Amino acid sequence: MAPHVLKRAFDVSAANQVWCGDVTYIQVGKRWMYFAAVMDLFARRIVGWSFSMVSDAELVCEALRMAVELRGRPYGVLFHSDQGCQYTSHKFRNELARHGHQQSMSRKGECWDNAPIERFFGSLKSEWVPEAGYVTEYEARLDVQRYVTRYNTARLHSYNGYQSPVTREKLAA
């Protein structure tokens, strides 16, 4: 298990300093589809994600790899998550090490230690995902990706002075 390095210091001064990740589930028919997301804490932008019908280490590794590529392969990012088995796995830890990232983990049973990504999932489910879920996996993936795009480019955040994450990052550049 990794130490709790982040210690709820959610305000960061630049992009690619701290990312946080988590996994949630979305109903698809009579099954669950798992959705892993990676958020850059600077502007609360979702920078990586993946979907799977199995919640395993590969799910979170794919989301991390997407973030690494989309953000230009930054080195030395602090990656914070809960203590889920996906994040404590050797596979995920090796993926972090391959990119030169440091791992931080929430304390056991402390959901507030990863509040920004938990808030994102809450918004996704309350604002967007149909109450009955989706009929097909394809429909779910497409619709959740639409939300991520909207969230990053159009959804206003009080944390960002009522700007979208993309706008906040552009203004800081």
UniProtKB/TrEMBL annotation:
GO terms for molecular function: nucleic acid binding. Signal peptide: none annotated. InterPro entries: Integrase_cat-core, RNaseH-like_sf, RNaseH_sf, Transpos_IS3, Transposase_IS3/IS150/IS904. PROSITE patterns: INTEGRASE. Residues 1-173 form the Integrase catalytic domain. GO terms for biological process: DNA integration. Gene3D superfamilies: Ribonuclease H-like superfamily/Ribonuclease H (3.30.420.10). It comes from the Bacteria. NCBIfam families: transpos_IS3 (NF033516). This is Integrase catalytic domain-containing protein. It comes from Pseudomonas turukhanskensis. The lineage of its organism: Bacteria, Pseudomonadati, Pseudomonadota, Gammaproteobacteria, Pseudomonadales.
